[in-house]
Structures are given as structure tokens and as C-alpha cells.
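U., I forgot to send this yesterday:
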Amino acid sequence: MRYVIVGGSVAAIAAIEAIRKEDGDGDITVFSDEKYPAYGRPTISYYLNGTISREKMAYRDEDFYARMGVTLELGKKVIKIDAKKKEVEISDGDKAAYDKLLVATGSSPVIPAVEGFESVRCAHTFMTMDDALSLEKDLGPEKSVLVVGAGLIGLKCVEGICGRVKKITCVDMADRILPSVLDAEGAEIMRRVLENEGVEFILNDSVAKFSDGRAVLKSGKKLPFDILVMAVGVRPNTSLVKEAGGNVKRGIVVNSYMETSLDGVYAAGDCAEGYDASVNEDRVLAILPNAAFQGSVAGANMAKGTGGEKKQHLCGVPMNAVGFFGTHVLSAGAYVGECLRTRDGDNLKKLYVKDGLLKGFILIGDIERAGIYTYLVRAQVPVDEVNFNLLKDAPQLLAFSDEFRREKLTQKV
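Result:
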């Protein structure tokens, strides 16, 4: 069996491990347009602020690929899938045949069309190791940095460069920071955390044009800067499957087995759509845990062929676990239904219950044992099957019956 994987990050690693559990002999080839073996993308900010070294960023140990019998082709971009011939074409002109193909191409930064952007000399994005290394070369104690976008990527960049430059200004058109992760109350807590480190926020505004080393905002305000970081969002990399005739919406459309509409072709990670159990619909969940789940399901099913029971991915939910300057945030699911709120200073907990289910939650500060809440959201456990009064106070195993702990907490969801 010939397995080809396009992309080298989290979903690819999970797929490799799942394939090898089923098939110890098949040929696995990974094509990655990056120059580095798999690393934790969220760690690039920690590299910039000196918390970890390049070596500690590795997602697996250095002999992983050899141990798994993988041919790793770094710096090679797949530019075409021929679904009829079952082969992929590489940017250098080579071709590779496959029996099973996994597209794990991730996403790319969105660069909005802004007048004068092409004139900005020090413009960066912040998604990859090369992005971080390029940005690092431009940093300096007398530099002013403008970060456009106050979402997760923009703010992790802010944390990475804080203390290495003179000034950081962050602009976002939303009315709060982390708008896709937190509600207004939670966002205000985290905004104060970042402002205490000297970060300036300009919200409800956006860049209209760049001119003479300045950003001119729609409000008319002019911001001089030395370095620009664009972090306004990402777009799933779907073109390979779309151009091959596959079904693509916002992401690559897959079923619960991670199969695309193309025979023998699977997709996983930030490029693929998947089922979101918290809202009961398919959508792109561009988060690391989901990429790992999807990659594992895809790899297992690629290796099973026609034999054995197929594995399904049925319980994806949006989840975010992030910290800024020692203050931690953990959220999951959808913020719908009745909100059960407790707050002690900057420790905030919000649990959202609808139709007898915990649909989502926000935790800031104290996130200990929050995996219990995540389990309830992902597994869609009815709250009347547990002692929810105990869980409202704190996540704890005592809220589950002995039978429930024995039968369900040991299950993989």
C-alpha cells in the first residue's frame, strides 16, 4: 500500500501513527512545503520571547520518521492531484503515485486588500517558523510594531515580541479582543492583562491605507510604525482538492471517516470541514486538537481498506487553550442557552447549558481539571446523568456515579 500525505504538521503526524497501528509495511511519503520536520506552531511565540529553544519546538523526537518508516520530503510543494491516475505532481516536476492520499494542507494567512500595502517594507505574517524567524530579524529595542488583528494569532505575536521592541499597537475592527474566543466580559479581563504589559489597543477601527510609514485608520487616526504584522485571519488551503474536482465549501468537505468526494483521498486538519457537536453542523474547526483527531481517523481508515471496522470522527467541538503572561484561558463549545456565571477577581467561569446539555464554557484564571467540562461538551452527556450542582462549583470526578466513571470515562470520544 502506498500512502502519500500532503502537509507535515499535526494532522499528518496523527495519520502516520494511526497508519502504522494498522499497517506496519506500507510505504508512507510525506510532502511538506516547509523546510522543517513537524513542530508545534503555537510555540513560535515562545521561541521569540525566549521561553523555549528551537529544539524544544519539535512535535516528535528526531528519529520519529525513521522509526515509522516514513520518507520525508521537506521543501517540496504538491501542486496538483490527478484523481484518475492516483498521483500527485510536485513543484519540481516529479510525480508520486498513491493508493491512499491524505490532504493536510492547513491554512494560510488572509492579507486583505489595503491601499499602499505593497509599499510597507517590513511586513510580516505570523503562522510558521519562517514567519517567526523573519520577524525576529527586524525586531529591535527602538522599533514600533503595528499588529493588525486582535485574535489568537495576533495576540500570541504580541506576547512573543513584548519586551523586544519599544511599542506595540494592536488594531482590530471588532469591539473586543479575542472576539471568536471570548465574550465581552472575558475579553475585558484579558485586555487588561495585555495592557499591563504596555500593549495599546485600538478597537472598532481598521486600516484604510498605508502611507509613508504610517497606517491611516478609517477613523482618520494615523499610526506611525516600523514593523507591520498582519494577523486578520486564515483561509483553509483547499485548492488541491477543488482543482481535482473534489467537493469544497469553506473547507474540504469530508464525511465522518474523513473521506473526500474523490476516491481514495482523505482530508484532515485546518483545511477540512468537520462535524461540530456543539452546534450540530459541519464547519471548519481550525484548532490543534481537532487536527489530531481528524488525522488519526483519516490514517486509521486509509490503512483499513475494505477490512475491519472503520473509525469515525463524530465529536469535534471548538476548543481553545491559551495563556498570556501567566493568565490562562480555556474555552470550548458554543455560548448558547442559560449562562451559569461565577467570578472572583479575574477568575471567571461561565457554563452554558441548553436542552439539558453543557453546550460550552469559558474559564479564565483557574483552569484546573477543565478537561471534565470538555468531556461533557464533546460527549454530549446529559447534565441530569451527573451531579451538575457539584460540577457548577468545580470540575470533579465525584460528580459522576461509579458506574458512569467505569463505563464512560474510559471511552474515547
